[in-house]
Amino acid sequence: MEEVSWYQPTPETSLAFIKEFNVSKTAKIIDIGGGDSFFVDHLLDLGYQDITVLDISETALSKAKQRLGEKSNRVKWIVEDAGTFKPTEQYDFWHDRAAFHFLTEDNEIESYIDTVKQNIKPTGILVIGSFSEQGPIKCSGIEIKQYSESSLESRFKEHLNKIECFTVDHRTPFNTNQNFVFCSFRRKR
User: Fold this and answer.
1) pTM of the full predicted structure?
2) Given this model, what pLDDT does residue 2 score?
3) Where is the Methyltransferase type domain (predicted)?
């Protein structure tokens, strides 16, 4: 696991949002691009009961399932591209740490935003963590789209109200920094 740049044994920023918004243990939570991250492990340990993890990589999801063992049966696993995902349910907490910035075409971005709009519950929260304008321009050799607080807010403002944004430096296992911008939003009523 530690050979990937996004490796984080404790996803502190993501867990801080769960705490900040006092997300109910019965809330429907989806982790977009969650793959083999440890966010799901922590959510299960905290007692969350309705967790979905979506990732384009079946291999990454298989690693997470293997790591979790029997606990993996308490999670819904979806192998799909975040840009074309069409959920069959609505979510209270939509979490995306580092999947959104892989969507570089306007039609993919608009499809994702439309999916969020249609599939976040009326009181739902969206948390997006993306490479900032001071972050990398590629990830794992793949082109990404950088964001600022204002460009993220601009993308979602038609359907969601921004709660807060801030930047975080993520220290990679390769001893480099990746600057992320994290924004939280609440669905407009």
Assistant:
1) 0.92
2) 42
3) 30-126
